[in-house]
Design goal:
mainly alpha, 308 residues, 4-stranded mixed beta sheet
Amino acid sequence: MGHKKTFTAAAQPERFDFKNAVSEAYAQNPRLEHSVYFVDIAQNQVAHPNPETLQEILQFISSSDTGKKFIRPQIQECQRNKTSYCHFGGESSFVYIYTGEDRLRFFSPRVSGAQEMTFIFDHEFAHAHIAAGGSDNRFLAENTADVYALIRHIQRFGNGTALADEIIAARAQDTVFRANGILNFSCAALEHVLANPDKIDYAQLTPERTSALAETIAQEYTPDAPLLKRLHGAFAPLHEKASMDALAKISLETKDAAVLKWSATVLKALLAGAVRPPQNMPETNPDKAWNKHMAKISRRMDKMAQHP
């Protein structure tokens, strides 16, 4: 019987190494060498272990009709926005990773840039190689990618990291303040991964089992349309002008348990400096009044939990 590949925890890297990340992805998933391709769009660099395939990829991007009409414009858009993205579909997928120091940061300064970039890499990779990660249901696709990236994070670094502490609140904040529609509301699925009620040893999972588990969890915990609609409507007052006062008001007045839970989660994280505040949010200096607000919100949550 052949040895099954599993994952081992690693020391936290000081910098994200794009080539090493690509090499590891192919080593753990060799069947993807001719269907998933990686581009560091900040450095205009394509990585692949086979020199001939590498040249074919470069030629495809620069000269083919698909490369000219789709791949290159997508790369240019990601370069302008300083973000990463996965183009999936057909016989091949392209994972664009923006590694520049001027990239948009998602987590608080407590999370190292290397761990954040590794999470982003795994998230986009999941879109490329897991069926549900490429689903037409964008909420299922994003849940799948987040769950996979978090499990891989735990496999690499353990679950006591700043990123593991922040990921749920960060996704909740994006849901609360995002003006152009909810996208990455994966909080329930991420809670399940961190709670690990089945006591799964994530480090002992094979690459295949890791991908399958991510898909299973996402399919079970991706929120349905009515919940997403309720959340988007409840947080609509925050979409044009983000403020902690307005978010606290929603927490103190809502009769919806889900709205209360996630608004309180975001408030607590903002007060603790555990998430990056939206760029359009006025700076808030926490004082004793906020302690009273949070105590009252906590009592509301306890009461709502007793009488759902």
